[in-house]
Task: structure prediction
Amino acid sequence: MTLFKQIAILFSVFIIIIITSVMYLNFKSANEFIQNQLYTTSEDTATSLGLSLSLNIPTESNDLSTMETMINAIFDRGYYEAIILRDTSGKVLIENKHILKVKSVPDWFVRYTNIVVPTATTQISSGWIPYGVLSVKLHSGHAYMQLWNIFIDILQTFAILVAIVLAILYSLLTFVLKSLKEVEKQAIAISNNDFIIQKTLPFTTEFRSVVNTMNKMVKKVKDIFEHEAVMVQKYNALLYNDQDTGMGNRKFFSLRLSSLLNQEDAKSSGTVVIFVLNHFHQTKQKVGFEVLNAYINSLAELFYATTQGIEERVVSRLKDSEFAMILPQINYDETKSLIKKFLVKCEEIKREELSEIKEFYISGGATYFDENDNQKEILSRADFALSSALMKSEAHVHFHEIKSDESLEELGKQEWYKLITHALKGDGIKLAVQSVKDSFGEVFHKETYLRMNDKDGKLYPARVFVPMLSALALTDEVDKKVIELCIKLAKKEPNTEVAINIATSFINNTQNISWLENTLKNLLHVKLKLSFEAGNYAILHNLDNFISFANLVQKYGYGFGIDNFNITPKNLEYLQQLKPRYIKANKSFFIDMNTDTNNNSYTSFKVLATSLDIKLIATAVETKEESDALKAIPITLQQGSFIEVPRM
Result:
């Protein structure tokens, strides 16, 4: 129970007791006053009627008509319950009575309200001779009516007073505890990795001290986060960037290629191109460092400009005269067209001094890759293609021949449409799962990957058919089907978290988000373990939508994670906005940072992740040596073929 409620209830009970006590005493006083009034009236009536009767005592004992007329006249004219005349022996001579009935007053009020109506008596005598005793008792109905009206007035007054006092109390408590409410928000924000500084300080001394202390603590945590974020980016630049051009270096190239090869989608295939500047050192001696360095920087800009718009493309400077491109999802025909334009631009940006050196030109070797390849095979093919290009005495890029692969055979749109819609209607959309485990072999969660069966039972990996989904406008249907299958899996294994890869196209469609929210609402009565994750590149290029999406799933108690994480020049504050439960990064990302002796990048990154309560997961763990190296860091949560191969 909140402090506000506790104080409000305590004061409310106290005030109600006080007002109730006052009202009770008031009601009791009114009751006593009415009873005294009744007694006085009874006494006056008895005295005056007794005197009148004394003057009209009959001479004959049984002639009571005159006295009866007088008693009846008084009885009928007033509110009396009984007027009785008795002789000296107690015999009733004249008696007038009314049964107690009060129609306008509730029975319960009459039953529980005790009004004692006194009976007034007076002696009637003829001279000195006693004749009898007259008793008068007023009717209590009038008293009950008066007391009932007083009771209603008291109740109304009580209700008005209580309402006014409680309203004042609520306003006063709200005002006094407003600062405490802000402190509570601040504390909750800290637990949610948000940093809120209260600018308005409360006037209450104790609360002011608490707010000042909270502000200092929040500022300190925020400073730690910002400092470590800057240091991580600084160390990352030293570790993965070429210092002259700002391009990625060989480590960065290797890291990104490894990450792409371990993705379970269309990005796990594409083209790698390695370029070499011929006659580099001789040209440097002839034209000088400044001229050649200016060309290298212009060439770096050209690399970025040429590949702009290709999702998760990588451009790197491997060494002084060697460069590389990774172009995910790009087929050979598209790559050849792109490289042709690139070579023309390379000549156009040359200064006159460089153009005069005929031996200074660019050569390249290109090769296709998919998830079945490893880095060694890819680079061997690229080097072989580069050797073929170097045999020509001009700018040229040689493309390695692609071996026949049945899975890469192109089908027409109609065939693809039939195949995919048949899979959607039937049981053709499948899930493969791969576990993330800790050092003790306990499953952290199971990541799901998309597969598809055709009517003949042939299994297609995601990279083969996912590119066709967008062209056929079937992406949303497949995404919804995958989410439904993941929910079924989570219901089947309630103790295991199921991770769902969410596509950018899905979260950018408001209808999809509405569908997902309705789906999650229907699951409120079911305790499921679900998490949603997306690639770091996709998140950074659709940050606002992913922040909204993360808030949505977190609102329903589910987690959000970042896959294929790598540090970019962009500010790392987006981690604070997303509040991811975990981050997945290629094992080389962690190993490189931890083994680099020139900086403390992993230490800073670990502090940053810990401050945001983010769990770190190493992916693409393929050997025991890699797993042991990660455990030594320590990175205990691991995923890869060594931990568990994807299984249906």
